[in-house]
Amino acid sequence: MKIRRILATAVAAAVTTPVVFLSAAPAFADTKPGGTQTQKPASDEADKPSYEELEKAVAEAEAKLKDLKAKRKAAVQDIKDDKIDEALKTELAAAKAAVEAAKTAKATADAALVTAEEALAKLKETGSTATPEEIATAEQAVTAAKTAAEAAAAGKSAADLRLTNADTAYDDARVALARKVGLIDVDIVVAKQELADAEDALAAALEEGLSDCEEDDSVKVALSGPKSVTAGTSAIFSLRVSNTSDRTLDQVGALAYAAALPDSAEDIDDESDFKEYISIEWSSADVLEWTKVTEEHDAIEVGDLVKGGSKDVKLRLTLESDTPAGPGVAFAVGVYENNDGSCGLGEQYATADFDILAAKGDKPSPKPTSATESPEPSPSTATPTPAPTVTSTGNGDTTQQGGSSNTPVNDGALAATGANDTLPLGLAAAGAVALGAGALVLARRRKAGANA
Q: Same domain for 238 and 357?
């Protein structure tokens, strides 16, 4: 259950069930500590598994279930392919051939006996001129024919028994194959429950982790980009992460997600599935190569930020060629974790709306939204458009897009290991809530525009 999966779920939940966020926000605010919070595990939590262990348990359960399903598929194919021991197949074929041979031998012997008996009877008819010697020879022939017929009948019985035994062994082997599928089915039921339990445990830990980090204004983000992007192409968006606290933040990052949305909130129901048509890559002055946001590396890495400092990051959104035309949105929220254990989620999240145009050669692109229908920026959604050169907050130095202030920035563990190793999953889940709230605001704006 990685962050991208959580974010997608949060987006759908925010749009479909806004009351969850409306009711959850005050409760979350009530639990927010007044000052800097240091995470200290309670004594009764010493034996609780870590997020990494819970994630590993989910991964292992998924792998186990996948392996069992593969084994079941192979076992079913064995039945279809009649994958029985070759010796059993050979014996069954031989037994069938033996029965046919015995059947033929018995028929021949029975016919010979009938012929011998008819010949003897003819010799003994009244008026026959047969000599006693001829009659005696005919009687001997009948006796021999009877012996042969009895032997043929015994051979037929033996062949029939052999076929019965071979048939039984072959059927037992087929039953064993079917039984194997049945046993795997039982294991699959158990594995599914194990996976559900592991996912529930991780989800509970993530939910509990929401209160571990404070929601504050220490990290603000601003997001901007083009107003339209064509399916099958990429576009560059600008993200600025700023430290507005009164201290240096040791490990700063940002969570980002983008989605293609329905035209209106009415098109979304409980069965809606936000397919990830859009992938995100990021780069900065410290990380020059484009780095893809994946389930394993969820966060955009900023490093440490001094009081008043900021850093600019480029986001490259790539839309699949089959991305449906319509509204699109990108979300971002800042996060931080300090060496003293305190951590937080920026209260200010940012969204950038854009129109998704049909890929070239597809249906005509949708008409741009009219001025009267264009949603106004939300007060909580800051999306200033950085100029080609931007000024970092706090020192007056100017850097190119994707750069940072001249205040020394320590890449630290965040840049070295990726967000999964440094930012707690509870913090990431809190980011999901913020991004989900962004989806709620977006849906409201679109609905209001539609009803205007």
A: yes
If one counts every other C-beta atom within 10 angstroms of the C-beta of residue 85, the result is 11
Q: How many other C-beta atoms are found inside a 10 Å radius of the C-beta of residue 124? A: 12
304 near 412, Cβ under 8 Å? yes
* Residue 366 pLDDT exceeds 70: no
d(CA 103, CA 93): 15
Sign of the four-CA dihedral 63, 69, 74, 75: positive
Q: Which helix (H) or strand (E) holds 399?
A: strand 398-400
When divided into structural domains, the chain yields a total of 2
131 and 224: one domain? no
- Asked if residue 27 is part of any domain, the answer here is no
Rounded to the nearest 10 degrees, the angle between the axes of helix 425-451 and helix 51-80 is 80
Task: Report the DSSP beta bridge partners of residue 255.
Answer: 299, 333
Residues with Cβ < 8 Å from 89, sequence gap 6 or more? 170
Q: Are residues 160 and 53 in the same domain?
A: yes
List the beta bridge partners of residue 237. Answer: 315
- How are the residues of the chain apportioned to helix, strand and coil, as percentages rounded to the nearest 5? 50, 20, 30
DSSP 8-class letter at 343 = E
In a domain, 164, yes or no: yes
∠ CA 47-53-58 to the nearest 5 degrees? 130
For 80-132, what is each residue's pLDDT tens digit? Answer: 998 889 999 899 999 999 999 999 999 999 999 999 999 989 888 888 888 89
198 with 285, same domain?
no
Task: Give the C-alpha separation, 49 to 284, whole Å.
Answer: 35
Q: Residue 169 is part of which domain span?
A: 49-210
At 268, the pLDDT band (50, 70, 90 cuts) reads low
Question: What separation in angstroms does the CA of 396 have from each of 390, 403, 404?
Answer: 10, 14, 11
Residue 276: C-alpha distances to residues 188, 257, 258, 297, 323 (Å): 29, 9, 8, 16, 9
CATH of residue 385's domain is 2.60.40.10
- Is 286 within 8 Å of 415 (Cβ atoms)? yes
pTM: 0.45
**303 near 419, Cβ under 8 Å?**
no
Q: Is 288 contained in some domain? A: yes
**3-state class (DSSP) for residue 304:** strand
